[in-house]
Amino acid sequence: MMSTAAASNDNTKNTDEETSTPTAPASSLSDKERDAISAMPYEEARDQLIQAVQALEAGGLNLDQSMRQWELGEALAKRAQSLLGEVRAKLGAAQAEQESSAEMAGTQSNLD
Question: How far is CA 86 from the centre of its chain?
Fold first, then answer.
């Protein structure tokens, strides 16, 4: 028969295990592949993402192959979104600069 203190310790241990942060699942992508993706231009990432989606949609892949295509697609989509975000930020900055210079057009401070 288990003592109350021992039972309490077991419950505490289980609670601690349940609330601990789970570790990330292992990825099938190598560091070299991830580095290659992180260096891709937008068009290449987009084109490879399309290929990964088409492979998944076509079916016929086993579970491991499907997971690999999904992981590849996720990494490529993240890269493409990152690049689009950078472009949006540059466009926003350029528009803000254009608006600022338009407000000063024809003023004395613009002639200084």
Answer: 14
Q: Tell me the residue type at 84.
A: L
The CA distance from 45 to 3, in Å, is 60
Q: Could you tell me the two tokens for 15?
A: 């609670």
Give pLDDT tens digits for 11-56: 544 444 445 555 555 788 999 999 999 999 999 999 999 999 999 9
pLDDT at 68 over 80: yes
DSSP assigned state of 30: -
Tell me the HSE value of 1 on the side-chain side, using a 13 A CA sphere: 2
**Spatial separation of the C-alpha atoms in residues 78 and 84, rounded to whole Å:** 10
- How far is residue 36's CA from residue 42's CA, in Å, rounded to a whole number? 12
